[in-house]
Amino acid sequence: PSARAVLTVFEKYQKDRLLFVQTVADLASRESNIDALQAAGVMSLLRPLLLDTIPAIQQAAALALGRLANYNEEMAESVVDSDILPQLVYSLSEQNRFYKKAAAFVLRAVAKHSPELAQSVVDSGALNALVTCLEEFDPGVKEASAWALGYIARHNGDLAQAVVDAGAVPLLVLCVQEPELSLRRIAASALSDIAKHSPE
Description:
By secondary structure, the protein is mainly alpha-helical. It has helices at residues 2-27, 34-39, 42-49, 55-71, 73-81, 85-94, 97-111, 115-123, 126-133, 139-153, 157-165, 168-176, 181-195.
């Protein structure tokens, strides 16, 4: 019976982690909750859950972080300061497609606010990981990556050049030829985000 008792403790802990992170992701979808979540120290609690052994917990943690970072620059800076970006970049090459979509969403949510935050995403090594995701089979992963790359490139010529140098353009052009309409639209939008800065 002692082994069973031990197992029960672990099962309960897993259920509670999942419930916590799903609830936080749900709370993060409403702007009125953001300040309270931040005051409760949500970033430092979500960070270890990105490394959880259970994929569903990892994905929900990334989704929650993306929603938080999406709201304002302060939350996005908090993601950067919490050293979460390298973890996401690592996960883009290691994890399943659901997690890749969530991780790319966080990178996009951070990058959108300012050239400085987009530069932080670039400095974390995200470009190569995102470009590799453009070669994935899953259209949702390609879409999430194209979206993130466009958000990085739109700020200025230097960031757009970094996206070009990472080899994104030929792959985005291929995405524009895919059957999925939403992927084509996002890839075309990313190409325009890259191209708008200069004739080159």
